[in-house]
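Review form for a predicted model. The reviewer records the input and the model, then writes brief findings.
Reviewer: anonymous (R2)
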Amino acid sequence: MSWLAPLRARWQQASRREQLALLGGATLLMLALLWLLAVAPALATLRGAEPQRRALEAQLQQMQGLQAQAKALQAQPRLAPDEARRLLEASVKPLAPSLQIALAGDRATVTLKGMTADALTQWLAQVRLNVRMLPAEARLRRNAAGTWDGTMVLNLGAP
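Model under review:
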């Protein structure tokens, strides 16, 4: 408490006007600290809450849509391997120069040459929905023309 003694002495020597000015300055400083440490961060969080809620709601809707699509795909009956092979070959024919297929047992190896990203995504969606297959392996690379080359392996016996 010895360090407070000089401050008390100085306070008592100050005029009423100086004391009020010091109290006002200290009050202003305390209010500024309160604003910076407590109120401003809370207001910033409050301002950002609504856009964040909307973004999360949109993400939830998208995830629920994907969940419904996955459940619908799981509910579909399995295709016989011969039927899956026939549907897979039929999906490749329209894309013959860019897409070739080689069947070996219950595996189908699809070779891509210069296939555009849009065509590839449409073909994969068609295979997923109609043939009910997903790639087991994929080795794709983008070439200088911006199209895709590589191979994909599909398991015909897989759901």
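Findings: Strands lie at 99-104, 107-115, 135-142, 148-155.
Further findings: DSSP finds four helices and four strands in the chain.
Recommendation: see findings above.
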